[in-house]
Amino acid sequence: MVKETRYYGLLEVTPNASESDLKKAYRKKALRLHPDKGGDPELFKEVTHAYEVLSDPQKRSIYDARGEAGLSESGGMGGMDPQDLFSQLFGGGGPFGFGGGRPQGPRKTKDLVHRVTVSLEDLYRGKVTKLALTRNIICGKCGGKGGKEGAVRTCSNCNGRGIRIMLRQMGPMVQQIQQACDECQGAGEVINAKDRCPDCRGKKVISEKNMLEVHIDKGMKGGQTITFRGESDQAPGAVPGDVVIVIEEKPHERFKRRDTTLFTKTEVDILTALAGGQFVIKHLDDRALVVKIHPGEVLRHNALKVIPSEGMPSQRHHEPGDLFIRIQVEFPDSMPLDSIPLLEKALPARKPLEQFPKSIMLEEVEVVEADARQHELADAGEAMDEDHEGESEPRTQCANQ
Ligand SMILES: [Zn+2]
Ligand SMILES: [Zn+2]
């Protein structure tokens, strides 16, 4: 018969629970109650304290016989930091990294981050791609022991710690320096050469090619990640980390993208722009979009047109955005002289010259082509003015026109 049952109640076990029952119950409760998971810190502390007492056979027998009062009499209330106990149970960082700044134990191997450059075409259509990555796996021959049973010995040079503390005299000061143990190369243990596993040569792990099938979903964006849980390096006594694939969007030569909106520019000859016709835009899949300009309709240079629903698909429901087209009208370099009367007939009359008061002298001047340097100068000057316009599209100016 136990005197009190509050601690058992906190862990939701009966007073005859075994040590492993207690451990299981605490893990379950602690995971749920951990303050980093939004749990109540006070309750977490209480549950942890209950476990601390009940998992210690000596404290448990005091509690069973005399209850909490008995524990405080025997000075057993000291208690440890609940965070420490939690870390002991779950290892270093625990199952969800808390930023407590505590040193992380060798619990989980490093995540492997791999960047994959994906074309806009593949992001538009979606794609499955195979990726071969090399990783360490536990040696099957020795089961990760590195040698025959009993061949592994604790390094006597560093007492298994893998490091040695050296003291160095620096004038009046003594400096402590940590060094990897040279006897065991920081491993903390040694295996005689003849006892080493022939497959891994005592390293406990061997290198293996790991084939991963990466599903690039339609509409994915640069910067998104695809995680393969536990596919990183294996190591004895550690949980393998994850392989994290980071998508990088390859710049496209004709399309720019912002979320589900696509931008492109297209050149249209002046006859089509003024008299109708058609132009075509090769899309990111196996289609080309034919755009008709009806006779009588005029396409202005730099006009912005939209083709609805021909942008990128959204990732969730594959709902497409719009495709924006900036029209670039191609002007001829020169005009045959006999076509000029026809143009004069077809186009609106020339604008009359602006009239000035008599005090203004009219002076005829020549214009010449601007050279490359002058183009740059002009672009920089004009860009300053355009900052205020707040355009929704990245500039698509050609500097070398
Ligand atoms: Zn050593
Ligand atoms: Zn081996």
TrEMBL record:
Residues 126-209 form the CR-type domain. Keywords: Metal-binding, Repeat, Zinc, Zinc-finger. This is J domain-containing protein. Residues 6-67 form the J domain. SUPFAM superfamilies: Chaperone J-domain, DnaJ/Hsp40 cysteine-rich domain, HSP40/DnaJ peptide-binding domain. GO terms for molecular function: ATP binding; Hsp70 protein binding; unfolded protein binding; zinc ion binding. A zinc finger (CR-type) spans 126-209. The keyword Metal-binding applies. Gene3D superfamilies: DnaJ domain (1.10.287.110), Heat shock protein DnaJ, cysteine-rich domain (2.10.230.10), Urease metallochaperone UreE, N-terminal domain (2.60.260.20). It comes from the Eukaryota. InterPro entries: DnaJ (IPR012724), DnaJ_C (IPR002939), DnaJ_domain (IPR001623), DnaJ_domain_CS (IPR018253), DNJA1/2-like (IPR044713), HSP40/DnaJ_pept-bd (IPR008971), HSP_DnaJ_Cys-rich_dom (IPR001305), HSP_DnaJ_Cys-rich_dom_sf (IPR036410). GO terms for biological process: protein folding; response to heat. Residues 373-401 are annotated as: Disordered.
